[in-house]
Amino acid sequence: MNHKEVAERVLKAVGKDNLQAAAHCATRLRLVLKDSSVIDQEALDNDPDLKGTFEAAGQYQIIVGPGDVNTVYDELVKLTGIQEASTADLKEIAATQKKQNPLMALVKLLSDIFVPLIPALVAGGLLMALNNVLTSTGLFGAKSLIQMWPQLTDVAAMVNLMAAAPFTFMPVLIGYSATKRFGGNPYLGAAMGMILVMPALVNGYNVAAAISDGKMTYWSIFGLKVAQAGYQGQVLPVIGVAYILASLEKFFHKHLNDAVDFTFTPLLSVIITGFLTFIIVGPALRWVSDGLTNGLIHLYNLAGWLGMGVFGSFYSAIVVTGLHQSFPAIETMLIASYQKLGTGGDFIFPVAAAANMAQAGATFAVFFLTKNKKTKALALPAGISAILGITEPALFGVNLKMKYPFFIALGASGVGSLIMGLFHVLAVSLGSAGIIGFISIKSGYYIQFMISILVSFVLTFVITSIYGHRAESKTSDDVAV
Fold first, then answer.
1. In this structure, are residues 240 and 281 in contact, taking their beta carbons and an 8 Å threshold?
2. pTM of model > 0.70
3. Pairing of strands 19-24, 218-221
4. Is the dihedral of CA 63, 69, 72, 74 positive or negative?
5. Residues assigned a catalytic role
6. How far apart are alpha carbons 218 and 202 in whole angstroms?
7. Which domains does the chain have, with CATH numbers?
8. 170 vs 65: CA distance, rounded Å
9. Does residue 420 contact residue 352 with C-beta atoms inside 8 Å?
10. Helix (H), strand (E) at residue 116
11. Burial class (CB in 10 A: 0-12, 13-18, 19+), 92
């Protein structure tokens, strides 16, 4: 790929004067345009180096591919002189053009906070999965690997230490990311996160037990009894704390003089936020957070396999809307609860894996059906990407454009997810929601997981192939009949 030429073709198709702002994510150029109706869509659709386009939330997005998108974006910036922007900046620019509904605004907020954290959480999740491989019995026989090879015991212990760190100190990561998102100093946010997980506090996972057993320690603050409770594994309280911190910081920056501002804004912001956190905000949002987690677990226990089947039927549609960006917050709480308390597990991850494999099956079916060279060239790598858990190229570049592969995959995903529910397949760590996702699954359920995702893949592939052969061609890009 000649990245400069690709950037030139993209700019010509969208119009240099039409471009207001640009950013990129892992696979896509994200553009805010003055008028999307003037785009030369045919030129972009026929470009051999581009994998698809779509428009969502005021952004025109062009799928370039991992690795290449960074360089194409750099060339686009050079050609236009446009100021570089983050995806969060771009969303704010797009939001000024198109007012978002409250639900989408909340989803985007959670996305802005958690997407930057995903590499750390995935690294910790995969390390947990590796620890599971080393310590689980029944995976390679009656004994675990460390029982068969005791010399691996300390290796497993070190892996487990590294795996636990991102979740133990998750409030530090969220504090940094959320405070930055709310317009405050992210390092002050990280400092507040550290305050919330200080070893002197009762560990967040033991707070409920400490209160019920009468072992909770308290501060006496002007007659108030304030629990010395930590916030390990918590999400919502830290986001609330970050919002208060950023708001206070911006207030003091606005009302204090330069010299006083530099010295006292951090002090006042942290100390006021700290007192509000431990006295009011923290306990209230902990109750909400625990209620949400327990509610989801109760709903899963109540709806069981049927609920997972229904969820699986809609999962890829949720991905298209972007609502799935809020799931890591919920999954993190479910996994943190499992890691420390041994309760439940993450039921979202298995559903995501079934949905991704279904979209992969549809994309591979299109690869064998289509006569269009560009579609065929795109379908193969997009299908492989979907198998590994990244479905954007498959969704937006292939399946949604042809419509029926996408909807067939939704149905097959529901079947695969239903089987997951029947077998009580749950994840105990984050990871890649695809064929290698078995390493994130609770020990003893690997075979059931593999059966479920293979059903999703094979069922979609077969039905899409049969329907595709019978479907009448409507455009020159349609499949063979």
1. yes
2. no
3. unpaired
4. positive
5. 25
6. 10
7. 3-99 (3.30.1360.60), 115-301 (no CATH), 308-470 (no CATH)
8. 30
9. no
10. none
11. middle
- Residue type at position 309: G
**Residue 402 structure tokens:** 């042809």
| Contact by Cβ (8 Å): 349, 434 | no
* Residue 73, CA distances (Å) to 5, 80, 93, 247 in order: 12, 11, 18, 33
CA distances from 161 to 130, 157, 208, 301 (A): 12, 6, 24, 31
Q: Is the dihedral of CA 44, 46, 52, 56 positive or negative?
A: positive
Q: Encoding tokens for residue 90? A: 């771009």
Give strand pairing partners of 53. 62
Q: In tens digits, what is the pLDDT along the chain, a chain of 481 residues? A: 899 999 999 999 988 888 888 888 878 888 888 777 788 888 888 888 888 787 766 788 888 888 888 899 988 888 887 766 666 666 666 655 555 556 666 656 766 777 677 677 667 766 776 777 787 766 676 778 888 899 989 998 998 889 878 878 888 998 998 999 888 999 999 999 999 999 999 988 778 778 888 889 999 998 889 999 998 877 788 989 999 999 999 999 888 887 788 889 999 999 999 999 999 998 998 888 777 666 666 767 777 788 888 888 888 887 765 556 557 767 777 777 665 555 567 888 999 999 999 999 999 999 998 887 778 888 888 888 888 777 767 887 788 878 889 999 999 999 999 999 999 898 887 777 888 788 788 878 889 999 999 999 999 999 999 998 876 554 444 444 3
Task: Please tell me the distance from the alpha carbon of residue 439 to that of residue 417, in angstroms, as a whole number.
Answer: 18
CA dist 94 and 57 (Å) reads 7
Q: Which two tokens stand for residue 288?
A: 């909400």
